[in-house]
Amino acid sequence: MMLKGNDVNGADDAEQELRYSRVRAAMAENGLDLLLAYGPGWRRENIRYLTDARVTGSAALVLVPAAGEPSAFSVRPADLGVIAQRGWVTDVVRLDFPASTVLVERLRDLAPSRIGVAHLELLPQAIADAIAAGAPGAEVVSATGLLDDARMVKSDWELAQMRRSAAVCAAGWQKFVDVLEPGLPEYRIVAEVEAELKRLGAEDNFMLIASGGDEVMGMTPPGPRLLEEGDMVRTELTPQMNGYWLQICRSAVVGRASDAQRRSFDLFNEAVEAGLSVVRPGITAHEVAVAENDVFRKYGYGEYCTARYTRVRGHGHGLHLDETPIIEGNHTVLPERAVFIVHPNTYTPIAGYHVLGDPVVVTATGYEVLIETERVLFETPQGVAA
Amino acid sequence: MKRGLVVLDSAEVPEQERPGRVARLQQRLTDEGVTLGLVYADVHRSDDLGYLTNLCIYWNEGILAVPAEGEPAFLMKLSPRVHGWMRRSSTLTDLRSGKGFTALVQGLVENREQGVIGLVDAALWPATAVEEVRAAAPGWEVRPLGGLVREQRLVPSTAELDLLGRAAAALRTALDAGTAPDLPDGERIAILEQALRGAGYTDLMVEVVHGPDGVSAVEVTGQYRFGWLRVARLVAPHAGVALPSWAAAVQNALAAARGAVAPGVRAAAPAAAAENAFTTGLPSGAVLHATVVHQADLSTGGDYASPDEELAPGAVVVVGVEVLFPDGGRVAVADTVRVGVTGAEDLDAEEQHA
């Protein structure tokens, strides 16, 4: 397989029309006459959604008026040509941070009365001040949820990108298993996997890891720890292809798996199956999480589904890797074409932190698992324990 | 993303060095009349936090609270499950998790006499986080501050310079392999990822970018421990094919910029030297610009740095020349150098470690 990010065609005019009509409908519904999508260095998903361009600057904005052409701003000169070249937004301007006078002037011209800001919660003080100066009478509200909702339902084009990510997930996991051996430091595993993902065209990757026995409580960036025979090595790999992230969660044993590790796998696999079994259009994130957690409760491990031991029971995917959380209490409806991972990752005393999960797309009748990697407990050299 | 090696090793940075950095910040806070300094960090911009504590915030956001007297505390939206790892990999002992900053800051200021809270690098703070701090501390004055930690980071210590030199040597070797002729882009990136993350880099961004005439550039930006480097090299279209004249002139422009690096000059001066040295015509519509970015600012690519800042002796900077083409293409050349008494010095030069 040889997939290259540079070979991917950008989204077409129909995709652009679909996104902008969806966003503008939501703006009208929310009484917004202007939308400002802010993208700091670690949350650029809305910039990509509205420009189809891969920006690299530490701060970028897309300004979408209720009617008329959008504008884009970035603090980094190289972004301007990249955005303009894609052609979705042709009015592209360097943002003169912190004064942001170009934004102030644009807002003065438009004189909006109600502005929605996506990622308002991350907007730097300097840009917030510029909005206040440019639109002194305007009401400013968060539009983070508005764009999260717009991005949740994937188009055919978006699903095609995510299927490419799925293929790279599988290849990355295979490399992960292939390199495991006693004496290898954790960070060298990451180096090998990163190289494989990038060779296949991944733009980026999010990856956490943990190795060891039943003392392992969670995953972190890699350390210098050397693998030992009998270790369970856990990871979540999340390559990004042409903007779209997708995750695979698996665990592998260095050598032969113990009975406890097999029992742990059986528990987690049953929880994944339970979560998947309820997926259909209109299910809520809460209901998926309950289905997963009920398996732990059934076997007396319910306390390990709490925040003391775990974070979420899965999460959405798309242009951001960690979209709506699959967690009890989140009543967000998951519609057809939503993409998320079902992963009941948590600690139990059986064999320590266990990582297992599959990404799915919600179909008209249920779900489709997007990766082809077997959901088993892997052993090395290559084998299957459970 | 920060998914490479994270390690706290007193053989690399002496045990007393980081407390010394905190003590210098506390002195600056006292000089400014500030009772409690707050340093914001997120996964994209967290080098102040790393410098003071060795903590790598690999996801989400947090606030390091440094009182003018006493121990620092880290307030975060990450789960307490990661506290054990944070204690092992940083100098922090006071770790506090919560869903929002308001309750965390309330917990911090309760039972303290009201005073002045200073926001380090206030212009870059999320406005909502500032509001949360204000809401949590009624009766306290909340005052914006400049880059009180960045100003310490501008000149690396001997230990940091050693680490940068080690990182530069690994980068030089990897780049020789990654810029070999006739490799696919993905293979170039893979070679560099494998070599540099395998050498212990924490963060790495490798780009292969393209200009006209078949010219490419390989640009590597990496973080080793908490120091940053960037190097970029041009690659000819094929083995045995010389670079076109405009590309060779870009390399000469970089040499001119390096030649203008000296203590006390403004960051804009080497950049101007590069632009003045570029006399060969660029392809139609292309724009060349040169920059000098401090390694302390490299997590944000120098997006927020001032070209008017003077280069301090001993500082480590990235000298770069970039050409942007009208079709969105780009090539770049760059070196990371130390501002020596006599000019730019390579980081892995023997004289650095004598």
Automatic annotation (TrEMBL), chain B:
One of the Pfam families matching this protein, by short name: Creatinase_N
Gene3D superfamilies referenced in this protein's UniProt entry, alphabetically: Creatinase/methionine aminopeptidase superfamily, Creatinase/prolidase N-terminal domain
Ranges for domain Creatinase N-terminal: 21-155
InterPro entries for this protein: Creatin/AminoP/Spt16_N, Creatinase/aminopeptidase-like, Creatinase_N
Protein name: Creatinase N-terminal domain-containing protein
